[in-house]
TrEMBL record:
Residues 43-131 form the Ig-like domain. It is found in: Cytoplasm. SMART domains: IG (SM00409). This is Myosin-binding protein C, cardiac-type. Keywords: Cytoplasm, Disulfide bond, Phosphoprotein. The keyword NAD does not apply. The keyword Phosphoprotein applies. Transmembrane segments: none annotated. Its main location: cytoplasm.
């Protein structure tokens, strides 16, 4: 935090703002008080390497891979209109994170896996089609 006094003006500068700076701030001068609130949100995570369409045969392993702009970012996976996660996906799908790389793995492709797959971040999305013969 940097405090500045210039004439009658008082300024508080927050350098390298982070999520813990999301708060209400109060300035007190004698009996007078004023308040302000600072809202801090996560910077948008963009997708830097998009998903590629996959054409495969029944029984093969399929990997959909995206790369994002920030390590440790959250990526939401969907097939058509259904979210895929560890609770809903069962043993059909696996999820892997390696730094900025996020991978959706289908262990053995079937005809039921045909469709559009999506990867979402808070700042972007990518989609790819899976075709299974």
């Amino acid at each position: 935090y940097v405090f500045e006094n210039v004439g009658n003006k008082r300024t508080l500068n927050i350098n390298k703002c982070n999520l813990s700076d999301d708060a209400e701030y109060e300035c007190v001068i004698g009996e007078e008080k004023c308040f302000t609130e600072v809202f801090v949100k996560e910077p948008p995570v963009t997708i830097t390497k998009l998903l590629d369409d996959v054409h495969t045969v029944v029984g093969e392993k399929v990997e959909f891979e995206v790369e994002v702009s920030e390590e440790g970012a959250n990526v939401k996976w969907m097939k058509d209109e259904v979210e895929l996660n560890r609770e809903t996906a069962g043993s059909k799908y696996r999820f892997k994170k390696d730094g900025k790389k996020h991978v959706l793995i289908i262990t053995e492709a079937t005809k039921e896996d045909i469709g559009m797959y999506y990867a979402f971040t808070n700042g972007g999305e990518s989609k790819a089609e899976l075709e299974v013969e």
